[in-house]
Design brief:
Strand content: 15-25%
Low-confidence stretches: none
Number of helices: 17
Shape: flat
């Protein structure tokens, strides 16, 4: 542990602002003497462990700052694994700040607590991890549960917090360790290495492990999608109905809609939930040449958003292209043809573009092949579009029940495991089939695969990684 992890810490553990209840949390070693100046000697002496007591919280003159529930959790039976004191008071910011100041003031009179300080973001959860109260994946699930934007994401984070995700990691690790033991033992008896590996079905074990990791990789990708969602940008010509489509997808009047082309001057963003997956929809300014300074800025921002999209809805005006006025139809078709390669050029390779044809209510024509026909005004085709968005995101609805939350770093770690196992497979085949050497390389690839797995739960991680993860937590958590 770093030296700062030895300091006792205090922070307000509830959200900023006014509320019915606010909590001040203290964690550290040997906190029990702190109860006396906070609660009074007689009350502190009789304070039971892990049982709430309704008491007055005292200042240095033994005057009440507030009254509420006090709880004392002796180590190791606490959230952090250290002694923990929680003061549940009225949720006014001034009251809570007074209690924090009182804790800091009182601790200066106690030798073992003189280094008491305000907690850093995520430091309570970090200490829970360092004291083996939870692993790193569970610690991350704490903030994922707080930040969940959909019910499915919240349930997935709760499952990760309970250890469901970590359990699968441990199962894979145990199988990997068993195979490593076999290879390491074989290296100790080189004269029998090929026969020893064959007898113990090393090829079969490695193949089964690769299949298990592949299955786990798919579930992890689903968990990351559940947490992060996808960013979808609606792009197209002015007056194609982009703002109307945003409103239809969101089920609310978020963007201004008028018949005047160029109404949208800046991006409008909303997150919707489709089968529990958060989809971040961004409406942008119509893409065209413009002399209007403000509109040009909006168009530049639209191109910036397109470049960062996970998926682009290229919205077309079907009514305009089917117009009886030849000039309107010709201009619309030409503008669409010019935009298509420009949008593709802005996007990373393989980023999906959905061709969506709007204003089906104004024409009898059908959408061209591969396109989705909708009416943002009547709602026709909107459900089909939502399903298509899930499809391009890679969401499998059957995996939603019982899924857990995951992060991009987990996805990358599992991909590294799979890559190392592929290399290990090549070395094993060379040994078994061609009677070539390379068992030391096989052992090394298996070791690297195990390290990549251990990074997920924190069994193998750097201080830099821990600092980056916990710095994103809120103070008091």
């Amino acid at each position: 542990m770093l030296p700062r992890h030895q300091d006792p810490i205090v922070a307000i553990a509830t959200a900023p602002g006014r509320g019915a209840v606010g909590i001040v949390r203290v964690s550290g070693k040997y906190l029990k003497p702190l109860l006396t100046p906070l609660l009074g000697a007689s009350r502190a002496d009789s304070m039971p462990a892990r049982e709430a007591k309704y008491l007055k919280f005292l200042d240095k003159n033994n005057q009440a700052i507030d009254q509420g529930l006090a709880l004392y959790f002796p180590a190791p039976h606490s959230f952090t694994g250290e002694d923990v004191i929680e003061l549940q008071a009225h949720g006014g910011p001034v009251v809570l700040q007074l209690l924090v100041s009182r804790v800091l003031e009182a601790s200066k009179e106690i030798d073992a607590l003189k280094s008491m300080r305000i907690a850093q973001p995520g430091e309570f959860t970090e200490r829970a991890f360092l004291n083996d109260k939870m692993d790193l994946a569970q610690a991350e699930a704490v903030t994922d549960l707080i930040d969940a934007s959909t019910e499915a994401a919240a349930r997935g984070a709760a499952r990760s917090l309970s250890g469901a995700f970590s359990k699968e990691v441990h199962t894979l690790r145990d199988a990997l360790i068993h195979l490593r033991m076999l290879v390491e033992a074989t290296l100790d008896f080189p004269e029998e290495e090929i026969e020893h590996l064959s007898k113990n079905k090393a090829r079969e074990q490695l193949s089964n492990l690769q299949q298990s990791v592949l299955s786990f990789q798919k579930k992890t990708a689903q968990g990351a999608l559940l947490r992060e969602g996808i960013k979808v940008v609606i792009a197209g010509q002015p007056n194609a109905g982009k703002s109307s489509l945003l409103n239809a997808l969101a089920g609310a009047e978020l963007a201004i809609v008028t018949p005047i082309a160029g109404t949208t001057r800046d991006k409008v963003q909303e997150t919707i939930s489709v089968q529990g997956v958060p989809i971040h929809i961004i409406d942008t300014a119509g893409l065209r040449e413009s002399e209007d300074v403000v509109e040009r800025i909006g168009i530049e921002r639209a191109w910036e958003e397109i470049a960062k999209a996970d998926c682009v809805i290229h919205l077309h005006d079907l009514h305009a292209e089917q117009s009886q006025e030849k000039e309107i139809a010709t201009n619309s078709i030409a503008a669409r043809a010019a935009l298509m390669p420009a949008i593709r050029q802005k996007l990373p390779q393989n980023t999906p573009i959905l061709d969506v044809w709007n204003k089906a209510d104004l024409t009898q024509a059908s959408a061209p092949t591969e396109g989705i026909l909708i009416s943002a005004k009547t709602g026709q085709g909107i459900d089909a579009l939502r399903k298509k968005l899930l499809e391009v995101a890679g969401w499998q609805s059957s995996s939603g029940e019982g899924s857990y939350i995951a992060r991009e770093r987990h996805v990358q770690a599992v991909a590294a495991v799979q890559a190392h196992l592929a290399e290990a497979s090549d070395h094993l085949d060379a040994s078994l089939v061609h009677n070539a050497g390379g068992l030391d390389l096989l052992a090394e690839e298996l070791r690297l695969a195990q390290n990549a797995l251990n990074e997920i739960t924190g069994a193998f991680s750097s201080d830099d990684l821990l600092g980056e993860i916990f710095s994103k937590f809120c103070i008091g958590k």
